[in-house]
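REQUEST FORM: STRUCTURE PREDICTION
Request ID: SP-0412
Submitted by: Lab K.M.
Chain count: 1
Length (residues): 550
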Amino acid sequence: MIGDQDNPRGLDAYWHATLGQFTGGLSPAALTTAYVDWWMHMAGSPEKRFQLARQAMANEVPVEVKTDPRFADPAWDRFPFNVYAQQFLALQNWWGLATTNVPGLEAKHAQIVNFAARQWIDMMSPSNFALTNPQVQVRTRDELGQNLLRGARYWIEDFNRLLTRQPRKTSEYTVGKDLAATPGDVIFRNELIELIRYRPTTAKLRPEPILIVPAWIMKYYVLDLTAQQSLVAYLRDQGFEVFIISWKNPDKGDAELSMQDYVDLGVRAAITKIKQLGHDRLHATGYCLGGTLLSIVAAAMARDHDDSFASISLLAAQVDFSEPGELGLFINESQVTFLEDMMATRGYLKADQMAGAFQLLRSNDLIWSRVIRHYLLGERTHANPLMAWNADATRMPARMHSQYLRHLFLGNELAKGQFKVDGTAIALSDIRAKIYCLATETDHVSPWHSVYRLSLLTDTDVTFVLTNGGHNGGILSEPGHAGRHFRCGHKAEGNAHTAASDWFEKHRPRDGSWWPHWVQWLNKRSSPARLPQAADFEVLDAAPGRYVMG
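STATUS: Completed
RESULT:
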């Protein structure tokens, strides 16, 4: 019951859950505190205000006009559209100056105000309005306004779906047919995971299989997207026996699942099952938060003198949250408490709340460009597999997500050697298995500078690879994919840590996909391939299994 003695914050939880429907899950108190701090320090800095006044009067043409992708079309070079673009970018630069380097302003509050200002300014871009966008005007003239009529119909469709909470069907792709179609079998299931084994295609196999731990905030099949874009199929065809965890999509009954449960019922349970098949050692791979969880398990195994990992590969995974990028602006005590109250009313964090936060980090690409394309140009985005996967979002259990935010994001306990598994602290420096650490250049979820800090926190050999692309696109970098390159460096055990900027300048890009490079790295840390031994296991379902459908 709301407000009863067993739940003294029940009324708060109900109020915050209601309020969160209108704020996108953001804490109004956190935003207001940052704004008041900025306003008071701005009021107390006449020199800063004089600098802003001088900037406003300078009326300089921003150099970004030629480089901003919103105004790249030659139509923006014509009057009056060039003036619109120049005035907008001048305003953008002014607010950037107004929200940075304010004397006395707390750094995180400055970042929050700067971020919020950019969101409002991006909303006002002349590219977002039919009367000030030359491309939309040309389309409207050529189609006699039919593009705007289609756009209005698309807007009504999307608004109705928002009211009924039904996602727009972005494609005709089907999981198990077009997506997640690599042949395999579910060989283990518990209340949290299914373990999928992919059927080998080579006569001989490396004795050490690969276990992939995907993030629990996404469906696993981003790593088995299509026949052409399947990391698991590529590894399988290189002579590895491949296993992957498919996480259950939690509901209200899973509210009390904890980080310890994700360790025990997730990664540890999968390792135990693989060992039962006759494998003494394995290559462990974690993607995104799956990599964070894998690093926790690896540190706990090292603490317990368990050398079952022949190697560890972390793909776009953070272990140090001191530099989490702009996503960290959403995480502070006020915000976490607000989310906890919202989750308390339903037992989980809704998928659209996390997706909304990620979209704000790249609002021009993920929000406003779609507004222009759908509602002004009257074009529906063509279906593609990655969009279909991205729309297939997952939830997060309340207790686990709260622990993740408090212990990892707020407390940064994993990097500090304070995070506890089985009631005892673990340290990343205990890990002895060699590590392949991959980051992507334009990752807005796991910024590469943050991912790179792994080499500072570990004492083992670390091969760090930086590939172009974003959080998902950089991972889906199959051989033959045009325009791909990567940089690679190695830090031997005991060597000094190099600053990220120095590392970047020192290592030149190599053309091509990082996938073959990774396989070469795995091969060097594997035993010779041999004829596979007969393994006795029960097939519960054909891949992709049941949990991915939830």
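NOTES: The domain at 184-322+412-534 is CATH 3.40.50.1820 (Rossmann fold).
Reviewed by: T.R.
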